[in-house]
Amino acid sequence: MEYINANLSDNVFNKLKDLIYEISGIYFSGQKKYLLETRLSKRLSVLNLPNFEDYYNYLKYSLSKDREIKELLNSVTTNETSFFRDMPQLEVFVDILKQVVQAAGNNAYKKIRIWSAACSTGEEPYTIGILIKENFPSSDIKFEIAGSDISEQVISSAKKGIYGSYTLRNTPPAILNKYFDRIGDDSYSIKDEIKKIAAFHNVNLMNAKEVKKLNEFDVVLCRNVIIYFDTESKKKAITNIYESLKTGGYLFLGHSESLHSITSLFKLVGLGKTPLYKKE
Ligand SMILES: C[S@@+](CC[C@H](N)C(=O)[O-])C[C@H]1O[C@@H](n2cnc3c(N)ncnc32)[C@H](O)[C@@H]1O
Question: For ligand 1, is residue 151 a contact (CB within 6 Å)?
Answer without folding.
Answer: yes
